Structure formats: C-alpha cells, structure tokens
Amino acid sequence: MRDAFGAEFDVPQGYLNTPSIGIPPGVAADAVAAGVDRWRRGADTPDDFDEAVALSRQGYADLIGVPIGRVAVGTAVSQLLAPVAAGLPDGAKVLVAEGEFTSTTFPFAAQAHRGVTVTEVHLAELPAALPGHDVAAVSVVQSADGARVDLDALREARERSGVPVVLDVTQAAGWTPLRLDWADWVVAAGYKWLLSPRGAAWMAVHPRALERVIPVNAGWYAGEEPMQTVYGMPLRLAKGSRRLDLAPVWLAHLGAAAALPYLASLDLAAVHSHCAALADTLLTRLGLPARGSAIVALDADADGLAAAGVTASTRAGKARLGFHLYNTVDDVERVLDALRPRRTRPCR
C-alpha cells in the first residue's frame, strides 16, 4: 500500500503501466466493490446511479477547464467521436498526427465511403498544417511515446484558420493541468490516468460545435429527462451536449465518481511536476535528454523488465513506461537495475 497525494493506493512496486491501466485510489475501488455487493442483492434502481454520473461528469469538466453543461458521457473514445465523424460533410478532409492512437482516427477513416480523407503529418507539423482541412484530431499526449502536441500553437492555428479541433486527453488528463475550453471537442477514456474502471468516458463539446455532430448513438439516456424518453416517438433529445450521452456503465461511474473529483481537487501542477520529474530522472540517469512527459518509451524488452519486477507494456516496438502520482523514485531505481549494464534510446 502506498500513500500519495492524500490517498491510498494498493499499487505493487515497479508498476509503470498506467498508460494501459491506472490503479484506483482505495476509495474508488471500495465504491465499485460496494456497488457489486448491492448489485448481487438487487438493492439498486437506475435512479440510484444518477449522482455518480453527475459527479464523474463534473470531475471531468473540472479537470479540463470547461463548464459541466458541455460534457457528454459515454463508454469509449471511439464511440464518443463517432457522432463527430458522422457530422462531417461528404468529402471532408481530416488532419491527424502520424502514429496516432486509432480510437482517435478510425471513426474518421470509417467515413471513407462518403469521400472523407484522413491525412497524417508529423506531430510537430500539425498546427501549421490546419488550413485547408475540415477538422483536426490529435492526442494531447501521444500514447506510444508520451510526445506532446504544442497546445499553444494549436490554439493559435485554430483561431487563425477556423478549423475545428478534436483533442484526446486520455493520456494527459489526471497528471497535467489542462484548460481546454477553446477546443471544439475534448474526449477521454477514464481507465488510465483518470484511475477509473473501464467503461466510463467523457467528451466536452463547445457550443459552436454542437450542431456539427449527428447523435448516431441516440438512446433513452440522451433525452432531457431520461426517464421520460424511454418509450415511443418522436425523437426528443436534450438541447445541449447531453444529447450525445450514452446510457452509463453504472459500476464504472461509481468508481469514476470517486476518482475524478479526487484528481480534480489536487494541485495538478504539483502532480505534473512529480510525474514528469520521475520520468526525466529515469531518462537522465540513462544519459538521455529529459522530455517533460510522464510517459517514456525505451528501446528495451518489456518482458525482460517484467522478469525484474517492472510492469510496463510494449507499444510501437518499444517498452512504454508511465509515472503517475503513486510512483516513486524506487520505481525508477527498479527500472535502472533491470537495464544495467545496457543503454537504451528513447522512442523518437
């Protein structure tokens, strides 16, 4: 058990796989366990989960710096982006980063039958490449190697060109401060850095972008009063971003209702400093340049690291490691011990 930033985490030593699965604070895990116990006894009704969904929605809004009224709930990034992709005009041109996580790109690529095209550019070139496109979609922090998009440059390019922007903050929200009220769509899955169960995801929609989407997943929960839209026609959706709501995965939101408000209550500048400092300590101890990201990709064997008690993952042919608020310098030392005497290079 580790104490970190005012919470307890049952995280094993050497666990550096948060970019794949985050370890919940004890209160979040306990909330899910209590929900499972009530489920097995038939002790809940659908209305009993409304508070948890509202708390997770507010927590996400606070973490990315937007009003709660902009936030829709769903289950996965690709599911939430499907209405955005469906709303593109025929023949639309989509700009993405090379090697982008496919949950961010495939919803747009799947519109090829309508003449929609997807163009990949190097991450550093993406802001300058906005003009001439109908939308740009990019992760704030890249899943494969922790590279970060230049948000200031992207915002300026969006303002100059008028090209709407999709931001995926799945690998950024929870460990770095974000103020993204300027972006058109901001989406995230909760089971990584947001320390929630898989099955909870959120998307903030700027008011100017709401009419650009087609609610292809519309169901009863997308109504203004969900319990009043469970039967019969006509179509009657909520006026704001809630028209994109998918019926929530209840147990997932029980955990998210504890985890997201906890993260949003923290000094995220301090969390960012903690996480990036651990990652940069690892890099500099290996004779490599610091990068200021919580995610590190190394020319190393993840299976070999596992044999030394380090839990990581293999992505794009590299060993990917992530340092969250519950990690310590002991985890850095464990990686260094596993790598000696060889030297590694970071993923470029």
UniProtKB/TrEMBL annotation:
PANTHER family documented for this protein: CYSTEINE DESULFURASE, PYRIDOXAL PHOSPHATE (PLP)-DEPENDENT ASPARTATE AMINOTRANSFERASE SUPERFAMILY
Keyword check for rRNA processing: no
GO molecular function: transaminase activity
Superkingdom classification of source: Bacteria
Domain named Aminotransferase class V: residues: 77-286
Organism: Streptomyces morookaense (Streptoverticillium morookaense)
Keywords from the named record: Aminotransferase, Transferase
Protein known as: Aminotransferase class V-fold PLP-dependent enzyme
Pfam family, one: Aminotran_5
Keyword Calcium: no
